[in-house]
C-alpha cells in the first residue's frame, strides 16, 4: 500500500527513501500486470524503504523483445540520476536510478521521463536545504 508522505526515513542512521517494488515478465502469464510501463498502477504496487535509492530496469533479449521490467531498491553500487545501458551478447538493460521519494514511478523511459526524474531529484534537493 502506498504511503502519501514525501519524507526521507532514517534507517539505522542512514537516510532512506521509499521506492516502488514490482516486476513484470513476459513469462509470468498468470500475474496481473501492474508494473510494466503500459500498465503501471502506483496505487496497486507495493513500496519499500530503500537505503541507497530506487531503480527502474528494462531488459530486452537479443532480438529486441521485451523480457522483463522491474522497479526496485537499487541493486548496483551507485545512484547515477541518469539512464545507463548495459549490454551483453544476449541482453540489453536500460537502467534508471534516483534517490528521492517514489522516484521510480516513471511510466516510460524516454528523455521526457528522464527529465522528470532529474527535475524531481532537483526539487527534493532544494526542499531539503
UniProtKB/TrEMBL annotation:
Record protein name field: Protein quiver
Amino acid at each position: 500500500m502506498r504511503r502519501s508522505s514525501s519524507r526521507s526515513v532514517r534507517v539505522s542512521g542512514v537516510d532512506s527513501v521509499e521506492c516502488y517494488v514490482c516486476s513484470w515478465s513476459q513469462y509470468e502469464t498468470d500475474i496481473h500486470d501492474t508494473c510494466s510501463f503500459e500498465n503501471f498502477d502506483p496505487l496497486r504496487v507495493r513500496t519499500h524503504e530503500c537505503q541507497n535509492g530506487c531503480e527502474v530496469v528494462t531488459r530486452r533479449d537479443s532480438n529486441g523483445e521485451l523480457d522483463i521490467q522491474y522497479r526496485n531498491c537499487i541493486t548496483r553500487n551507485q545512484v547515477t540520476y541518469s539512464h545507463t545501458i548495459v549490454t551483453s551478447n544476449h541482453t540489453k538493460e536500460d537502467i534508471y536510478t534516483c534517490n528521492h521519494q517514489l522516484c521510480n514511478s516513471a511510466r516510460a523511459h524516454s528523455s521526457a521521463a528522464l527529465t522528470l526524474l532529474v527535475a524531481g531529484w532537483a526539487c527534493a534537493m532544494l526542499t531539503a536545504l
